[in-house]
């Protein structure tokens, strides 16, 4: 049995976690209007008098609320904070970061809009009364981190009172995911559910729901032992009992978890950190299945298990180990499917369908574009891969589809879907491609870590970025700067630089200066530079020093730009680093707007390119798009479309298209065309001869000013996320950030530099 137990992802420091939550607008959510609110007319439509029309329509027919309001795509994540992860009862307010987190996961993974509501009461009746009247606002209610046994009463009562899905995620989400993982773990170890002996530690919301689902799937009740803080839940026990535990009490001599686990096949941990000891694991049956799902720290770590057993299948609730059994794999997709058919409830049929679809996904071959979500490793069904990872892009089509079908078949769908194939396509289109792209970049770099020079090492945001780079296991971060200044600045900012993998290099004191100076002089002596000019640049200018490090193999890539404007930084490094042979250096920006990703070029280098250069930019950008995982569809942009209106600038673009025709390039392109024709299928339909098979995903701009102006406007006014410009076509990886870059921007660029170092 394979035994990869090392942590497979990044761990984060407490400082990073706080900084992440505090940066920019505090918290993780904001509300964005979906309609224009600019003119008197907008106001009249959105508010009085126009708003009265949908009001009357909904009053007449409540189902119209799904047509005229957010209700159909809106879920409330509601908690009272009585069982926040495995941290215990820390109150409603303290639960807010988790609830905001669940809300953003709804959006990120399944495009479900969601809002967190923290209800400050531990009284079940008060809680029920607070939630029951919120029904008209939402398409579904996701209850979260409410402790047992109150959670059972609350959920059951709300399900009776409300006509929308009410789903306690810690119960059913967890049960569905662990059922999927367990179906596969049993298959891998050749076990039969009917004879498998299971011990579940934790008799709360998650534990009780899990064993109920397991028994419904085929586990024999007498083979399932439940434990809590008092030990085994046996028949006749009176201490710490309630009706939900009693329903699962068994006849047994075992009284402690250790006794219950002797010879057991499966451990389900839904309790607390450290509850499972190595000695207990030692006593389990051959090929034991250990799901240590307590968060944030599992009942036992994979490292501890690996020290004593080489035959265990190990899963945790965390994203930094293989086999993450966590309800994040369920709730976004389960609600997606339920909302899409306007289900009145989430019933057992829908839950079982979700569990089966999830289990099935892990058994399928992993196609190329999905392998990227697995740190570049193509996982194979087996001990280290019993369940897909949350970033698996297939989840968004497979799980909601299965849930929606089950809702229709079991008669709880108010709006059945007629064309399921089309629905599957619509689901895939909800994927956020850039997030997957960045994730893929990070995962690849983690497998092939790189040495990146952070040229402006004395700056606070650069130091933070370097620490984050190292913490995320992306490789070695080299901070260039004066040792004493870096350390002083770090101390003042409360940044701990004492980390393996983080180096400080002082250019002035480096023993490589002579070699770097010679190298620079060799390149610049016929371009007006004296030897002493080169010496000064190497000693005093960090971009020159950093570029020499990379050129001469002392580092793999550079990130710079926070202290110097873009073109100056680019000129600095271009003195030392050339274009790749046969390539042209260009800037590409990745624009993410409303779930759509578009690459824009050239956003950095060519001021007013001629036709030949525009064609080169197109080729370079298409190659980059492919390396990023997109099949390029290029629009050669202008202010005109196919000859109208005529003008010199458009003629250059037309000529560039003819040049690409002659070069017989192997990607889709067409133009010249205006941006709306490139991006809007209705505008594109006016030109039936167009050679693009769909809206463009790469926009080639006619000149630098239009590229730069449009991407910056999109970022500032359009609410788009813009990454870049990324430098493409250089012989060595260099990325230049903008003057106001945040530490997270700098780490992204460092990761991209490291990624391209391996490409
Ligand atoms: N991976 C995942 O997707 C999920 C993981 N979880 C994790 O499961 C755990 C429980 O959550 P939840 O059910 O919502 O919480 P609850 O408060 O409803 O239940 C907690 C249960 O754990 C028991 N327990 C606590 N500490 C121990 C211990 N040291 N030994 C034995 N039993 C113990 C309690 O015993 P008693 O009844 O005696 O008080 C109680 O039965 C948390 O760590 C949570 O993070 C939860 C949901 C999803
Ligand atoms: C994952 C989750 O919901 C929990 O640990 O509570
Ligand atoms: Mg939870």
Automatic annotation (TrEMBL):
Cleavable signal peptide: none
Protein's UniProt name: NADP-dependent malic enzyme
Residues in Malic enzyme NAD-binding domain copies: 171-408
Stored CDD domains: NAD_bind_2_malic_enz (cd05311)
Family matches, as InterPro entries: Aminoacid_DH-like_N_sf (IPR046346), Malate_Decarboxylase (IPR051674), Malic_enzyme_CS (IPR015884), Malic_N_dom (IPR012301), Malic_N_dom_sf (IPR037062), Malic_NAD-bd (IPR012302), Malic_NAD-bd_bact_type (IPR045213), ME_PTA (IPR012188)
Gene Ontology MF terms: malate dehydrogenase (decarboxylating) (NADP+) activity
Gene3D superfamilies reported in the protein's UniProt record: 3.40.50.10950, Isocitrate/Isopropylmalate dehydrogenase-like, Malic enzyme, N-terminal domain, NAD(P)-binding Rossmann-like Domain
